[in-house]
Amino acid sequence: MKHVSSTDAAKKIVERYLASHERGQYTWRPFVKRGIYRREDYRYHADLQDLLPSAPLGSYSYIWGVYPSTGESTLRFALIPYGPVKVYVNGVLVGESDIFSERYRSKQILELPMRKGLNDLVLLCENTSGGFGCEFGTWVGKLDYYFLMPALYSEMEGLCYSAPQEHLLESLSLDSLYSLSWFPERPDLHEGEVKLSSVFPDTKEGQCAVLATSFTLKENRWCTFQSNARLFLDDLPVEGSLELQSGRHTLLLHARIEEMVSLVVRDAKTNDTIAVSNPVLPESCPYRFLIAGPFDSRPDAFTLQYTKPFPTADGEDFWHLEGENAYLRMYNDNPLFGHWNYPLGVTLYGLAETERMLSSSDPSLAYRIAEYLENHIQASLDSYPYAMWDKEHLGGSTAVHHLMTSLDSLDDCGSFASTVLEVGKDHELHGFEEIIEVVHTYISKIQPRLSDGTFFRTGLMHEFHENTMWVDDLYMSVPFLIRYSIYANDNSYLEDAINQFFGFAKYLYMEDQQLMSHVYDFERNIATGIPWGRGNGWALFSLSELLMVLPENHPKRKKLITFFRSLSEGFLRHQDEEGMFHQVLDMHSSYQESSCTAMAACAFSRGVRHQWYENPEPYREGCVKACDGLKKKAIDGDGHVHGVCRGSEFSCSRRYYAEQLLPRLDDTHGIGIILLALCEGEKLD
After folding, report:
1. Per-residue DSSP letter, 465
2. In Å, what is the CA distance from 182 to each residue of 149, 151, 404, 531, 583?
3. Could you tell me how far CA 449 lies from the centroid of its own chain?
4. Residue 134: exposure state from Cβ atoms within 10 A (0-12, 13-18, ≥19)
5. Order of strands, edge to edge, in the sheet holding 468-470?
6. At a CB cut-off of 8 Å and minimum separation 6, what does 6 contact?
7. Long-range contacts of 296-302 (CB under 8 A, 24+ apart)
8. How confident is the model at residue 358 (pLDDT cuts 50, 70, 90)?
């Protein structure tokens, strides 16, 4: 994008982003808590010796699941075998266990080829005296991908497993697979009847439940309702016959749990039965009712909603389905809307600043941004209570808020929570206090620290990060601490933010280069020595966030400004002729990377505007060149963002950063910070 203003470039990005992600909703699926389902480590556990206790040694069992892919790709897959296991994708053998992983039950990593659409994953397990079955799924904790049951289970999450087989199938065609007997057994549901005692087996006499179901009329007609439960339609009691308009109607039934509940809806004219279906699941799904309870007495009013747990006689609960251990489960299948993670935290921060910039020049687009911010953040806030209920009751892994429900790092919480506080300054957000306090408690009291109080990483589900310090964590902590200090009117959090810079510098600052090493590895007591572009961007940008609120008379302000000047000088030294900075800052053969260029532009602008530099002109020029470089190299005419490094691990090799951490199109690690850079460019002008 050439010869356009920073405002116009920002508008292009925003318009494309909102068009792609402005609307979002949740997905609901049936879930049965038995058989093979995800546990707290986000992997599926299939101990077939437990699931098939009478299977003879030497027999086999097939495990079958489906993975929907949006395009051709590879799925990184961990296999922890208990005995011999072969892995098939779409009928083709793609990997198998070995004697070492079987003996030690150690993790093997496979790259599973995925085609666009549905992919059949089949694991062939042999029963041996050493073990039978496996654990499998995500290669690292908290990745929220999951498998669905085959079609015969109506899009339920999980995998099915076959009865023991003496002989192997000749092929893994769908016909061959369907010929086997599969577990868990599919629900045996009777039309028009619900046995509530199987849903709530441990209830007291006289307790009751609320059931919800629905039906659709193609035209206006009289309907007759027959039930032993008390019926409500649109909050009004229903008895006998009623004239209804065309469309979808929802029925509520109040019934005692000890009774078998019956319901028949008929066309009053023809006496034909009108089928009822679940209010939120597909009509093809065998589960026709949502069930809430137990209640000690019939609730006077029961609000139909499907995103939050509700109080019952046994405490907070969510919707059950017919049968034992069957639940309605919520999923967020939208790529970006309503999610809570650190790149989206930065993205929304960039949108918020863009909204402020456009409030007078383009109020219509500013309003759309405001609406999106409120909708996205509110969805994240509103779904948190459900997610915590899901974690406690359905196995430990969640498909909504999978980071906050498995909170064990600054990555999980600090960035997005900081943005919630930032957006909350000039937007109406409801109920953010609870999750903000959870984040505050984690960062201040739980997150591991060195003896001097500096954050580092240990005890994570992601074991590769064990005993390391990442420069990234300055952004994952400091902006939140700054904003929480203001929110809570407590300067101790500001002091914590200040001290983090000195602690991180002790281990990561490379004085000869005036740059930060990406990671310090306490296992080997070495800094990696790689000045990764975005890592240095996190440090410099976060320091600018701190200096903007730090009182002029603070005793450590002078040292922090000296550090800011030094990092700025080290950064600026490596700006290329096109205004861009590179993936490895001092390795110009590595690619031009957009997010670190944007972070430098932001920090330089703030430094010039707030008079932190002794000689501001090189940094003014550096900011202008960086913004021009972004408009020419990183933003196209359709508002797509190019050249943003994907999320990283770490290495002591420059080649890892330059050749394996390659750029992606429209990656959220760069969209928000580029918007912030364009806003800063306008402010500097």
Report:
1. G
2. 11, 12, 35, 54, 50
3. 26
4. buried
5. 468-470, 519-521, 526-527
6. 627, 631, 678, 679, 681, 682, 685
7. 296/204, 296/206, 296/207, 297/208, 298/208, 298/230, 298/254, 299/210, 299/254, 301/235, 302/210, 302/252
8. very high
Distances (CA, A) of 596 to 188, 204, 572: 57, 62, 12
Q: How many CA atoms lie within 13 A of 185 on its CB side?
A: 5
> Residue 613 CA to chain centroid, in angstroms?
40
- pLDDT digit string, tens, across residues 572-630: 999 999 999 999 999 999 999 999 999 999 999 999 999 999 999 999 999 999 999 99
Helix (H), strand (E) at residue 251: strand 247-256
- Cβ atoms within 10 Å, residue 588: 14
Burial 409-439 (b: 16+ CB within 10 A, else e): bbbbbbbbbbbbbbbbeebebeebeebbebb
Q: What secondary structure does DSSP assign to 262-285, as a single string? A: EEEEEETTT-PBPPPB-SSS-TTS
Distance linking the first and last C-alpha atoms of the chain: 19
For residue 443, give the DSSP letter: I
Q: pTM here?
A: 0.95
453 Rama sector, left if φ>0, alpha if ψ -120 to 50, beta otherwise: left
The one-letter code for the residue type at 38 is R
Give the strand pairing for 221-227 and 240-244.
antiparallel
Rounded Cα gap, residues 632 and 627, in angstroms? 9
Which are the contacts of 377, defined by CB distance < 8 A and separation ≥ 6? 348, 419, 420, 423, 427, 429, 432
Contacts of 165 by beta carbon, 8 Å cutoff, 6+ apart? 59, 60, 61, 62, 180
Instruction: Report which of 410, 407, 521 is spatially closest to residue 461, judged by C-alpha positions.
Output: 407
Residue 142: how many other CB atoms lie within 10 Å:
21
Instruction: Say how far apart CA 555 and CA 144 lie, in whole Å.
Output: 45
- Beta bridge mates, 535: none
Q: Taking Cα atoms as reference points, which of 481, 617, 601 lies closest to residue 550?
A: 481
Structure tokens belonging to residue 534: 């975005």
In angstroms, the CA 415 to CA 380 distance is 14
Smallest Cα–Cα separation from 278: which of 226, 211, 225, 221? 211
Q: The tokens of 435 are what?
A: 């999750």
Q: Tell me the pLDDT tens digit for each residue of 191-210.
A: 778 999 999 998 899 999 99
Amino acid present at 560: L
d(CA 185, CA 323): 11
Give the whole-angstrom CA distance, residue 365 versus residue 371.
Answer: 10
264's CB contacts (< 8 A; 6+ apart) are: 192, 225, 226, 227, 273
Backbone angles phi, psi at 324, to 5 degrees: -85, 135
Task: Write the pLDDT tens digit of every residue in 472-512.
Answer: 999 999 999 999 999 999 999 999 999 999 999 999 999 99
Output the furthest CA–CA distance in the chain (Å, rounded): 89
DSSP 656: I
Q: Which residues contact 115 (CB under 8 A, 6 or more apart)?
A: 69, 72, 90
